[in-house]
From TrEMBL:
<comment type="pathway">
    <text>Cell wall biogenesis; peptidoglycan biosynthesis.</text>
</comment>
<dbReference type="InterPro" id="IPR004391">
    <property type="entry name" value="Glu_race"/>
</dbReference>
<dbReference type="GO" id="GO:0071555">
    <property type="term" value="P:cell wall organization"/>
</dbReference>
<comment type="function">
    <text>Provides the (R)-glutamate required for cell wall biosynthesis.</text>
</comment>
<keyword id="KW-0133">Cell shape</keyword>
<comment type="similarity">
    <text>Belongs to the aspartate/glutamate racemases family.</text>
</comment>
<feature type="binding site">
    <location>
        <begin position="74"/>
        <end position="75"/>
    </location>
    <ligand>
        <name>substrate</name>
    </ligand>
</feature>
<feature type="active site" description="Proton donor/acceptor">
    <location>
        <position position="73"/>
    </location>
</feature>
<keyword id="KW-0573">Peptidoglycan synthesis</keyword>
<dbReference type="GO" id="GO:0009252">
    <property type="term" value="P:peptidoglycan biosynthetic process"/>
</dbReference>
<dbReference type="GO" id="GO:0008360">
    <property type="term" value="P:regulation of cell shape"/>
</dbReference>
<dbReference type="GO" id="GO:0008881">
    <property type="term" value="F:glutamate racemase activity"/>
</dbReference>
<dbReference type="Pfam" id="PF01177">
    <property type="entry name" value="Asp_Glu_race"/>
</dbReference>
<dbReference type="InterPro" id="IPR033134">
    <property type="entry name" value="Asp/Glu_racemase_AS_2"/>
</dbReference>
<feature type="binding site">
    <location>
        <begin position="10"/>
        <end position="11"/>
    </location>
    <ligand>
        <name>substrate</name>
    </ligand>
</feature>
<dbReference type="InterPro" id="IPR001920">
    <property type="entry name" value="Asp/Glu_race"/>
</dbReference>
<keyword id="KW-0413">Isomerase</keyword>
Amino acid sequence: MKKQPIGVFDSGLGGLTILNALHRELPHEDLIYFGDTANVPYGSKSKAAVTKFSLAIARFLESLGVKLIVVACNTASAQALAELRRRISVPVMGVIEPGAERAAQTSRNGRIAVLGTEGTVKSNAYPKAILKRSPQARIIQQACPLFVPLVEENWGKKPAAELIAREYMARVQKSGADTVILGCTHYPILKPVLRKILGKHVTLVDSADTLAQAARAFLTARGQAAAQGKGCVRLYASDDPARFKRLAGYLLPGKIGAVRLKKLDL
């Protein structure tokens, strides 16, 4: 079990931020990443569609012999995690609980803002998880549907990104939140823009590191953590692997090998 790989999936490129964190935290582990580029973004799709895509990806990763599946997508974690755990034999870990835990521990004034896709916001998954840990917390949610395409097109440093972010952040600033959860794996790529707008006094919670730590603790407790050797990374995309490789190069410089095409069996 120790040398079986860890499977990671997201709707597109965003989950590579979590792949990076897992590689840092678990350098001996082999990692398999699946980007569902044929169906990105998930945030505007129905729960039924997101669950269907997630199950197809999880079954594919399961067929590759992974020992753990990390759902590196907030929308899929919010809408499909329970079904995945019910129907997949491999342990499945989502991204929302670690992010909620970090936010509850970090906030000083109890005001927490959640940035997410429309699907994540509608699910109320983050408020539920935060209130379990901090019942007095005051939470606002802000859907940011244009953030994902900005990142997927590598427009994070263009003026348009700041203009759009300022529109979304106006309500967050008005709320007085001192902690902001980046509730989509694409959003950490926009950290420089968000820090510029929100200021240094606001903490941005990126759950990638917290999730990676949780994955290490989980595997260690089960005696399944790899302890030697250099882990390798395999990448799959459900559409246009050449484009995925080109854009992924901005996030994983020097680490991109072949990107394999794998159409989903829906």
